[in-house]
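Researcher: Structure for this, please.
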Amino acid sequence: MGASASGKSALLQALSGRIQDLTITGDCFMDGKKVNPKRLDNPIAYVPQEDSVIGELTAREVTMHTAVLKRKETTEILENEVQNMLELLGLSKVADGIIGTLIFVRFLILVNCFMF
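Model: Predicted structure, token format:
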């Protein structure tokens, strides 16, 4: 927490690798393990204030797109993992419905940040 324009968002963007052209010096650790914010497998993530999910997509589509962008497994493996995650979260019955609502969009962004 801090005052407006104190750099909170900039720090989160740098640690999560959202600012690609930023030069960061020093080492970044999470749970005692060194992480590189510029790698796709960076475990550091956060949910931005502005929504970045298209509300016309389904929960399954958004989650699958995130998995494809962040993982190297085959489509079949990713589809199975997405299905398992949706079932684990109790979303399998609504997985193919249009997202639409703002609250659900923010929840899905959060899930995608930490699951993939």
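Researcher: Any notable elements?
Model: The chain has a mean pLDDT of 77. DSSP finds four helices and two strands in the chain.
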